[in-house]
């Protein structure tokens, strides 16, 4: 592993330099990778592994989508139990609630020496709730891409890859770590950093409910509502809340960091951001602390398993999503997106001095 300095703390990570694709293919040359489920992560990981030359089969309840991606019933597409029997690496990629439901069917078909692979620590870290307890005679692996399945595939096709965390929960064969890393490289990871099943799920659940989705949606809604209540038009409120963030500023933060963003905006924006950032931190820190506590104690997972396991959950979910999509803010967003100028193909570097979007000097 390479030793990398992350903000003053040195961590060991696996890169493609010391673990190239050729090594991954050698490690997994005799393996049959069975992708169980075909929902969010599964299609991307299945197709990336297949494109990289690994032997991949799919186990699914519904064959329609995997068939659209080129998998053929009876050849490399089977029902779930048959796929587990045929596989030596079992990538358990159904939803968290779904894993609890079908685990008995998976467990009874596992063979000694199989690798049981997850892309989320949920089922193992909260085994008291999920009852997903692997037998002692299999390897238990985790490779968790730091992005949605859509971006796992998009980044792979662009050649960029996506970063992932990895962990070994159980090493029965003595080969668990090299199998795990090979699978991480195989799905297209740019680099892999070590974690544990617990740390992965604690950070993941906090992030999803926090800055990645929940907090972002909540803060955006609060700013949009404030602007609207003070007489700003829907288009102006949306542009200042979402459009400029997603189309300009966050891309610059991604490329150069927040310190660069602060240094390359107008003095008015700079002063305001520096003054108000601590206030937002102070206001939200108690919420994040409460959120992390609920994740760590299992309160959030109990809610997921209880709510998502209801027979009418899809109906309830559709109503919640419809309320979000039909809100004025996100109906405005559809209109704004339709007005975006089309790309001309011309690009320029944001590392040049003074390039910081509309608010640059």
Provide an overview of this structure:
This protein is α/β, with parallel strands linked by helices and 361 residues long. It folds into two domains: 2-196, NAD(P)-binding Rossmann-like Domain (Rossmann fold), CATH 3.40.50.720; 210-338, no CATH class. The chain contains 17 helices and ten strands. The chain has a ten-stranded mixed sheet with strand order 1-2-10-9-8-7-6-3-4-5, with helices on both faces. Mean pLDDT is 92; it is low at 347-361.
Task: Record keyword descriptors for this entry.
361 residues, 10 strands, globular, Rossmann fold, alpha/beta, 17 helices, ten-stranded mixed sheet
What's this model, at a glance?
The chain has 17 helices and ten strands. The chain has 361 residues and is of the alpha/beta class.
């Amino acid at each position: 592993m390479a030793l990398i300095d992350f903000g003053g703390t040195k961590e060991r990570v696996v890169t493609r330099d010391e673990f190239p694709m050729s090594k991954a293919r050698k490690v997994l040359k005799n393996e049959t990778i069975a992708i169980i489920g075909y929902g969010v992560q599964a299609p991307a990981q299945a197709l990336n592994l297949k494109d990289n030359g690994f032997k991949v089969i799919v186990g699914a309840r519904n064959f329609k989508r995997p068939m659209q991606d080129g998998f053929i019933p009876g050849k490399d597409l089977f029902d779930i139990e048959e796929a587990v029997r045929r596989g030596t690496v079992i990538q358990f990629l159904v939803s968290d609630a779904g894993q609890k439901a079908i685990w008995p069917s998976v467990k009874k078909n596992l063979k000694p020496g199989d690798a049981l692979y997850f892309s989320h620590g949920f089922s193992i870290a909260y085994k008291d709730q999920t009852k997903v307890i692997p037998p002692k005679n299999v390897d238990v692996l985790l490779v968790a891409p730091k992005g949605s399945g859509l971006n796992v595939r998009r980044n792979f096709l662009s050649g960029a890859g996506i970063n992932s965390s990895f962990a070994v929960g159980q090493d029965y064969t003595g080969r668990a770590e090299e199998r795990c890393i090979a699978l991480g490289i195989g799905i297209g990871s740019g680099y892999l950093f070590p974690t544990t099943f617990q740390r992965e799920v604690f950070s993941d659940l906090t992030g999803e409910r926090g800055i990645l989705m929940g907090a972002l949606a909540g803060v955006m809604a609060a700013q949009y509502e404030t602007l609207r209540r003070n007489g700003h038009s829907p288009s102006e409120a949306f542009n200042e809340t979402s459009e400029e963030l997603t189309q300009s500023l966050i891309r610059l933060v991604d490329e150069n960091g927040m310190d660069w963003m602060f240094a390359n905006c107008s003095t008015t924006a700079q002063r305001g951001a520096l003054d108000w950032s601590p206030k937002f931190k102070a206001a939200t820190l108690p919420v994040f602390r409460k959120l992390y506590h609920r994740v760590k104690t299992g309160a959030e997972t109990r809610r997921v398993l209880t709510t998502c396991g209801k027979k009418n959950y899809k109906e309830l979910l559709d109503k919640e999503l419809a309320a979000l999509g039909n809100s004025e803010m996100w109906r405005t967003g559809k209109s704004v997106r339709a007005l975006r100028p089309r790309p001309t193909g011309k690009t320029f570097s944001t590392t040049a001095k003074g390039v910081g979007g509309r608010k640059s000097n």
